[in-house]
């Protein structure tokens, strides 16, 4: 059987995001839609990925009381006040950096959220439901974060 290699158009970029609070939901929807417009993606998919182990990418509703509930939920899942072997300098021997933070809780919280989402793009826009928004979830801030964005599909003239 002979396989034909088809080249799929792909565009990629990195988005820098600064966070200001220890736990924070940063709405990325408009920024990612701007990236989509700049690439000219008309129909396809876009993958949005955090390049950090203590930050997550999620889709949910942007409602202030709900965001407060999310922060409380994450603290119940893995409290900052908890005890984590990852934070114990007397026993930890790998992946140690300069100015290492005690952030075992943030790693555990990220485990339940995930590092990326893949979303459909239709007509040059994210195909989100009525209340859906795209968030970077900071779990160990304040800091600068990098988000990788890869767009795959059919590209054409942007409407911007």
Elements, N to C (H/E): EEHEEHHEEEE
CATH architecture: Sandwich
Tally of discrete structural domains: 1
CATH superfamily: YjbQ-like
Distance between the termini: 44 Å
Order of strands across the biggest sheet?
Answer: 1-8-3-5-6
Give the helix/strand layout.
Blueprint: E1 10-18, E2 24-27, H1 29-39, E3 41-50, E4 55-61, H2 64-77, H3 104-113, E5 116-122, E6 125-126, E7 132-138, E8 144-155
Structure description:
The chain is α+β, with helices and mostly antiparallel strands. The protein has one domain (17-80, 104-155): YjbQ-like (Jelly Rolls). It contains three helices and eight strands, in the order E-E-H-E-E-H-H-E-E-E-E. The radius of gyration is 18 Å and the shape is globular. The relative contact order is 0.38.
Fill in the keyword field for this structure.
three-stranded antiparallel sheet; 36% strand; 8 strands; five-stranded antiparallel sheet
Task: Offer a concise description of the structure.
With 160 residues, this protein is α+β, with helices and mostly antiparallel strands. 22% of the residues lie in helices and 36% in strands.
